[in-house]
Amino acid sequence: MNRLVEMPEIEVVAVVKAQPLPFSRQGKSRIKRHLQRVGWRFGWLLIYQRAVQALGYGLSLVVPGLRNRLLPAWRIARERNIPLHRCDNINDAATSEFIRSCEPDLLVSAYFSQILGAEVIQLPRLGVLNIHPGWLPSYRGAMSYFWVLHNRSERGGVTVHWIDEGVDTGQILARRSFPIRAKATQETVLTMTAVIGARLLRRVIRQLRNGQPVAIPVADTADSHENYYPMPGDCEFASYFRQHRFFRIRDVLGLIVFRGWRR
Q1: How far apart are CA 99 and CA 123, in angstroms?
Q2: Contact 132, 194 (CB under 8 A)
Q3: CA dist 208 to 57, 168, 173, 203, 249, Å?
Q4: What is the 3-state composition of the chain as percent helix, strand, coil, each rounded to the nearest 5?
Q5: What residues have CB less than 8 Å from 21, skipping those under 6 apart?
Q6: Is residue 163 within 8 Å of residue 129, measured between CB atoms?
Q7: Using omega within 30 degrees of 0 as the cis cutoff, is the peptide bond preceding 137 cis?
Q8: Contact (CB, 8 A) for 43 and 35
Q9: Residues 91/120, Cβ–Cβ less than 8 Å
Q10: Rounded to 5 degrees, what are φ and ψ at 201?
Q11: How far is it, in rounded angstroms, from Cα 140 to Cα 169?
Q12: Is 124 in contact with 101 (CB distance < 8 Å)?
């Protein structure tokens, strides 16, 4: 969002933000099932990480000299008077109507936590672009930034592709790999996909505006074989924690301050 609003040739007309799980009886049941799958240790780790992020973001608002910090999408929307819609389900009637009323040429899905249905995919004139934090088609599915570390891969990746009714199966428009440094955490790998993904997205959008062909062929090589990874469970997280750290406090605070990101 920070990079898109810098592009004078496009207009961001709305933002749709997925809501966290609601604290209703149904929402609590979903949370419990999810924690039973991934494990309570991982659940508490996420709560701790969110607390550190909130603290870091609060500090970034009061510490002088942080003018180059990147802002969350909701903050940009509020400051620029861009309509913001919060949804529990991207495919419900209210959200579809909101998107339809904006008459978008293009939708961009960036680390969105829900699967788009056929009706939503067909709403924009051109289609829906997705920033996928993994090298497609080798890392389809959930949390590819987790699996690339779990598998001890030497390189991570990020892909921009069209969304279709499959899971990460749409036409690939751009992708780039990057080396994974020793002692990298999931937070640093995820951050790299966001930084590179934003650059790839800007390039793809400009190519679409200029009518240039952007689809890239996917050669049948060892790093392009199709693999699907589901949401990791308790066993996978236990194995992961023996090899890697999920995040470090300095990783999260570094994401809030964002010093040097504009170089």
Answers
A1: 7
A2: no
A3: 35, 20, 10, 9, 39
A4: 45, 15, 40
A5: 27, 30, 31, 34
A6: yes
A7: yes
A8: yes
A9: yes
A10: -60, -45
A11: 8
A12: no
Q: Can you read off the two tokens belonging to residue 53?
A: 């992020």
10/1 Cα distance (integer angstroms)? 12
Tell me what pLDDT residue 181 has: 87
Q: Which domains does the chain have, with CATH numbers?
A: 4-257 (3.40.50.170)
CA distance 18 to 30: 15
Task: Kindly state the tokens that stand for 43.
Answer: 């659940």
pLDDT confidence of residue 238: 80
Q: Tell me which amino acid residue 54 is.
A: A
Q: Do 90 and 15 contact (CB within 8 A), yes or no?
A: no
Query: How far, in Å, CA of 130 to CA of 159, rounded?
Result: 8
| pLDDT recorded at residue 92 | 94
Task: Note the pLDDT of residue 231.
Answer: 84
> What is the block-wise mean pLDDT of the chain (263 residues), using blocks of 10 residues?
93 90 56 66 71 70 63 90 94 96 96 91 96 95 90 94 93 94 85 93 94 76 77 81 72 50 35
Q: Residue written as tokens 């279709």?
A: 164
Token duo for residue 236:
């996978």
